[in-house]
Amino acid sequence: MNGDRVPDGLVEDVDEALAAVAHLVARAGLAADARQLGALASLYRRLRPALDALRAGLGPEAEPTSGVAPRWRSGRVDRGGG
Amino acid sequence: MDADDELCYWPVAALHRAYQARTLSPLETVRAYLERIERLDRDLRCYITVTADLAIAAARQAEARAARGALLGSLDGVPVGLKDLVDTAGVRTTAHSARHANRIPDTNAAVVEALLGAGAVLLGKQSLHEFAAGGPTRDGVFPAARNPWNVALVPGGSSSGSGAAVAAGLCAAALGTDTGGSVRYPASYCGVVGLKPTRGLVSRRGVIPLAWSLDDVGPITRTVEDAAILLQSIAEADPADDARGRDRCPDVRGRLRAGVRGLRLGAPLREVERAPDLHADTLAAYRDALRVFERLGAQVRSVDLPEARHVDTVARAIIASEALAYHQRDAGERPTLYGRGFYQALLEGTLISGTDYVNALRMRGLIGERMRELMDSVDLLALPTTPHPAWDFAVEARVPGWLRSSFTRLFNLTGQPAISVPGGRSTDGLPIGLQLAGRPFGDDVVLAAAHAYEAATGWSAHRPPLERRPPSTR
């Protein structure tokens, strides 16, 4: 996890995606060779829009949650059908 | 196949009955397994560490108890294996990583205490994907496990050695861990049963984590009844595990034969058919399975899964973040201790910002709420376990994770119980898994449905053709 956020508009550009992931990897204190960065940039270009879609999918009406799994109602299976 | 090899395919329940009747010796059984491991594991590579001396000593103790008519329970004298990230006191626990190549824990994991307390005999520690992620290890300190149906194929992971060993008759049962499907994938690829229990039913204390908020420990077995036996033995409320459930384990063995008549079975056909990597044989087996359930008296109805388009993103963001949080210091200071596959998985964590992680947690909450609403209208969900049968190591290495569909991760996000049970064979003769998921703490309903399906189809009785092939073609 990293505190930086690269602007969405960079995601279409391969070179800029590479630069972005290189920055994020270094910021996390890790190292990566060119092949690893290339694979990471490919993922980044797909993941970034997916994460943005996820945020949009939450919507303004979403209730805050700690992320803890939801509470489930107890109760046995009704075998009566219906 | 000679008599000793045949013995190595006996279900746990049958071993127990024979020990009780004193028609079978625990010591003979353990020796048969150790001989089979010695003979077959050079090709299959299921084990990182075989604990032969400990196993013989434990078998002698079980033998003495059997002679006195004082067996401890259904697992007494039963030979089991453990995924090698489950801590065992005095026995190295490597997580299949150079980082832990010589790590010997001082204490047992909670599940190991439970198994050994029930008299189970530990045969050894089994191979996995390094730290339970990143795919089969190609550059690791230990070799990757292979699929007993065809050693050119992956056994599925990350509990790869455990799934392969159970299928190959190299242990009677095993424990794996499941963060995104790691018990159910090898079960599906190897043609055995794999259960991810309800989160909180089985303690994770003493298990090296991949992602704290998604990890679960679960049994891999050859029959559904054996999965119920193992779950009943390892389920316990553990104050040291913050995911513990308030409910006690349901009587999964007592309700095993409850059947499915009258149950409402949700089939998310639209999501299944949309998977771009769905294999035609997998879809055909899935449709066949739905027809079997209808014949057994279940009401099959089409459903849509909640927020299906976000599930993989949420799971990926949480797993990558939590895995990196655990490994960040060592990965920065000693990167050469990690294989390339797992190190790449850690690098993915650098792409997830703090707000991304929080939003993933929020979406997981929404998915859970909508799943709860869905599960008010059905009793069970049925899906394929995997989009396709096992593929070979080269394809596994070539296709990046983000291009693969998953039918398993959803239930790690919601914490529901989910089982993979053998559900057919491909035109190439490879196993295909069927997945059933239920309500939290409805593990008994899941197991009963899987048991009914197993009894109706007989797929669990199929075995890999190990003895029929000469070594040169393996």
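qc> The longest strand of chain B covers residues 418-425.
qc> done
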